[in-house]
Amino acid sequence: MNIYLSLKRLFRGMGGVLRSVLLVAAAGILTAAQAQTVQGVTETEILIGVVTDLSGPLTASGGNQRNGMIMAAEEINAAGGVHGRKINMMFEDSGMDPKKAVLATQKLLSDNKIFAMIGTLGSAATQASMPLALERNVPVLFPIATGDIAFKPFHPLKFGLQPLSSEHMRVAVKFAYEKLGKRHFGIIYQDDETGQSALRAAEVQLKALGLTVVERASYKRGDTNRVSQIARLKAANIDMLLLGGAGTPADIAGVALETRAQNWPIDMITYSGAIAAVVKLGGPAVEGLYSMGMFTGTAQDSTPPFQAVLDRYKARFGYELETPADYGYVSLMLFAEGAKNAGRNLTPQTLSQGLEKVKNFKTVFAVPPISYGPNDHSPPSEALVLQVRDGKWKVVAGPLTVN
User: Fold this and answer.
1) Paired strand residues for 363
2) Is it true that the peptide bond before 324 is cis, omega within 30 degrees of 0?
């Protein structure tokens, strides 16, 4: 801007019309030069980086997420882009390994020089890679992480979209108590911070209802043997089994299959995991399973715009849309909304301000409205309730909140 003022003084002695023309031209040149200095932003392109699982235990989820983002980018670009700039996506594989996530992030930041990271898959991958991006003034947006790392502690370049596991576990307990009449709760959880967080949330909500956890059982990450844990929970005569810290569809399905093997027809509810892979792996054993969710895939009621998206997805990728393709789609559309609000001068700071202007954002997916503010980059707290019915996830209640 100092250069612009200097030019303005230089042109002061010229005729009014000529001076105006030169000042407009100078402003345009300076704007273009400024745009070129922002990493990942040119006059024609915005470069976005994504670290997801394309070879590890959540390959199906990572692939669906990628497809949803690709489809959203194609729609945005076909409509003219964001202020004339097309979105270009760069995907890197973490294999759900935090060390690989760090290497992938370094490549995106240093070699590809991305403008923003969107949708990093996994809490551990997010925790390991986020500092690298923030140190480079690169926004870290909408990671698929069940903890609050996506928006706490507050940072102007961090925005959450994935619901908190603790909030949804509390909603799960409240729903089971109020709508299903359950009073004797047990919980099986993964013995790590994610599982412990789910346990604490369940205990907090049960205490608010005047109840306690009747029985609890934990398992180590990667442990597929649940025989003793399910036997102990069964002996406790509970009427609702909470699934906490279920890291993969195999974890959820594995618990259900063991309850069936022990001839125990117990009602079960998990704070997340309403994806097709759970049904494929669990089969009849997961029939009736409840799950909290914000992203529901094809479980929502059909509408013409929604069906059109499903049709385009199948035509583009050759198979039916599954969660988290909807997460990928919504996350990129949400980025584009914030970038549009930022105006033509897109920088990390103007993007943050643009996202803070987002109010009640919706797409064709039945996701609770998304809003941010200057001091609030948190995801929606509402949860939809889904249940496996006739081999498919269906939305059966919600959105619900703890309060």
Assistant:
1) none
2) yes
Burial tier of 98 (Cβ tally within 10 Å: 0-12, 13-18, 19+): middle
Locate 343 and state its tokens.
Answer: 């105006």
- Going by DSSP bridges, is the β-strand pair 392-400/383-389 parallel, antiparallel, or unpaired? antiparallel
In one-letter notation, the amino acid at residue 214 is: V
Q: How far apart are CA 40 and CA 20, in angstroms?
A: 32
pTM over the 0.85 mark: no
The CA distance from 245 to 201, in Å, is 11
User: For the chain, how are helix, strand and coil distributed in percent, rounded to 5?
Assistant: 45, 20, 35
Measure the CA–CA gap between 296 and 326, rounded to whole angstroms. 8
Residues of the chain with pLDDT under 50: 1-8, 21-24, 26, 29-35
Distance separating alpha carbons of residues 275 and 299, to the nearest angstrom:
10
Paired sense of beta strands 290-293 and 383-389, if any: antiparallel
**Residues forming a β-bridge with 384:** 293
- Give Rg (Cα) of the chain: 24
Q: How many CB atoms lie within 10 A of CB 316?
A: 13
pLDDT in tens, 334-374: 999 999 999 999 999 999 999 999 999 999 998 889 999 99
pLDDT (tens digit per residue) in 150-174: 999 999 999 999 888 888 999 999 9
